[in-house]
């Protein structure tokens, strides 16, 4: 079921549930957020049964509260791309993974995305740790369970998960995991950690 | 051991906890209309109800009437069950536009919108357990 090499948009063989229109599986989702180039699409692609697909949303740029966009004239529109993948967990359960950029100006998209989500994986690159701060602030503000996944790029210094936790001022129940987004097992482990944490936080 | 630089420190915005972040409205062709009562999340499944050939009359009213080629493409794609995000990605149409078109088509009985499978805002424990066991079988 791993991601096979395929042309973009090539979905491969349909899953059984796709051809039976009398009923639909339960659809659920996990959000993967982080700065540019941190490995979001790689993460999604490592476990997705389809080549990650790209969807776009168009936003109007309001001038207030968007200090990183002051250079853009009023009423300008900008397009935000989001990559996603899919995992059929069983005949009646499908998990979507949505990779989305972490900058504050994309928060408008997240309101929609986080509704009904299991939780979020915030990807961090220790060379550019500040880029994951807005995502942490956002998920904390809306109470969505999240974990921090630290990607290690070749030739970069390694930090212990505890040092990352301290720098990010994370509460103790938030997991910090080292991952390699290119490895399927590593990504599956991160997802398991998130779902367990969401379960711990869910009301009985 | 590599010599490591100290990591930058984050000061969490404690006041923000529980406060909804400020919101910028997504732009849509219809100027932000929210007419449809259907729940069309990115992961919501939709499927065509009929073959276009069997439709008694052309689509009337709404954005769908103005965008017949797009509508045909959606119906064609939805011979298989698709999520809203898949329709948007495979037809290269922005999410906002796809949502409005699917809403119109659902109103007109051409598209079925499936329930998301759980009410409320968060998946419940039973669902989380199922996801957990599904993931551990991978
Ligand atoms: N060493 C290492 N490289 C990685 C890892 N994850 C991703 N990469 C590489 O980092 C680069 C960027 O990865 P992407 O998955 O495209 O990152 P992204 O976050 O989707 O990027 P944008 O969508 O452009 O913001 C690619 O060349 C990946 O091969 C990782 O865990 N370890
Ligand atoms: Mg990407």
Could you walk me through the main structural features you see in this protein, from its secondary elements to its overall organization?
The complex is a heterodimer of chains A (204) and B (138). With 204 residues, chain A is an alpha/beta fold. Chain A has helices at residues 16-19, 40-47, 107-114, 133-142, 161-167, 184-201, and strands at residues 26-34, 53-60, 77-90, 93-101, 119-125, 146-151, 176-179. Chain A has a seven-stranded mixed β-sheet, with helices on both faces. Chain A is globular, with a radius of gyration of 17 Å. Chain A contains six helices and seven strands, in the order αβαβββαβαβαβα. With 138 residues, chain B is mainly alpha-helical. In chain B, 34% of the residues lie in helices and 7% in strands. Chain B has helices at 62-66, 68-77, 84-90, 95-107, 125-136; strands spanning 45-48, 82-83, 111-113. A three-stranded antiparallel β-sheet of chain B has the order 2-1-3. Chain B is extended, with a radius of gyration of 21 Å. The two termini of chain B are 35 Å apart. Residues 21-36 of chain B have low confidence and may be disordered. The chains are: A alpha/beta (204), B mainly alpha (138). At the A-B interface, helix 1, strand 1, strand 2, strand 3 and strand 4 of A face strand 1, strand 2, helix 3 and helix 5 of B. The complex binds guanosine-5'-triphosphate and magnesium ion. Residues 40-41, 83, 99 of chain A line the site of magnesium ion.
Q: How would you classify the helix and strand content of chain B by structural class?
A: mainly alpha
Biggest interface and residues each = A-B, 83 and 66 residues
The CA-CA distance between the termini of chain B, in Å, is: 35 Å
CATH class category name of chain A: Alpha Beta
Question: What CATH architecture of chain A would you give?
Answer: 3-Layer(aba) Sandwich
Give the overall silhouette of chain A. Answer: globular
How many strands, which pairing sense, and closed or not: the largest β-sheet of chain A?
7 strands, mixed
Can you write the helix and strand succession of chain A as a string? HEHEEEHEHEHEH
Helix content of chain B: 25-40%
Radius of gyration of chain A: 17 Å
Q: What would you call the structural class of chain A?
A: alpha/beta
Low-pLDDT residue spans of chain B: 21-36
If you consult CATH, what is the topology of chain A? Rossmann fold
Contiguous low-pLDDT stretches of chain A (5 residues minimum) are: 1-8, 63-72
Strand order of the largest sheet of chain B: 2-1-3
CATH superfamily of chain A: P-loop containing nucleotide triphosphate hydrolases
């Amino acid at each position: 079921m791993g991601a096979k090499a395929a042309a973009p948009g090539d979905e491969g063989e349909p899953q059984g549930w796709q051809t039976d229109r009398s009923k639909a599986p339960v659809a659920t989702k996990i959000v993967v957020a982080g700065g540019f180039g941190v490995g979001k699409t790689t993460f999604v692609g490592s476990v997705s049964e389809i080549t990650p697909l790209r969807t776009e949303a168009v936003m109007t740029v309001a001038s207030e509260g968007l200090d990183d966009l002051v250079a853009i004239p009023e009423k300008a529109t900008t397009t935000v791309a989001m990559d996603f993948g899919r995992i059929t967990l069983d005949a009646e359960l499908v998990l979507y993974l949505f990779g989305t950029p972490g900058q504050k100006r994309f928060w408008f998209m997240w309101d929609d995305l986080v509704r009904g989500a299991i939780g979020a994986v915030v990807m961090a690159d220790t060379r550019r740790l500040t880029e994951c701060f807005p995502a942490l602030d956002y998920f904390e503000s809306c109470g969505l369970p999240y974990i921090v996944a630290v990607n290690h790029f070749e030739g970069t210094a390694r930090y212990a998960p505890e040092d990352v936790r301290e720098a990010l001022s994370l509460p103790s129940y938030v997991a910090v995991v080292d991952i390699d987004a290119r490895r399927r097992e590593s990504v599956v482990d991160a997802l398991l950690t998130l779902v367990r944490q969401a379960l711990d936080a869910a009301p009985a | 051991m590599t010599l490591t630089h100290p990591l930058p420190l984050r000061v969490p915005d404690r006041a923000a906890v529980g406060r909804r972040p400020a919101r910028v409205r997504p732009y849509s062709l219809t100027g932000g209309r929210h007419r449809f009562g259907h729940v069309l999340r990115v992961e919501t499944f939709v499927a065509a109800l009929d073959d276009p050939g069997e439709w008694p009359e052309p689509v009337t009213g709404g954005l769908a009437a103005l965008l017949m080629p797009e509508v045909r493409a959606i119906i064609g794609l939805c011979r298989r069950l698709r999520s809203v995000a898949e329709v948007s990605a495979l037809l290269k149409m922005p999410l906002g536009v796809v949502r409005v078109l699917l809403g119109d088509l659902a109103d007109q009985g051409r598209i079925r919108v499936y329930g998301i499978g759980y009410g409320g805002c968060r998946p419940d424990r039973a669902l989380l357990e199922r996801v957990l066991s599904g993931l551990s079988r991978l």
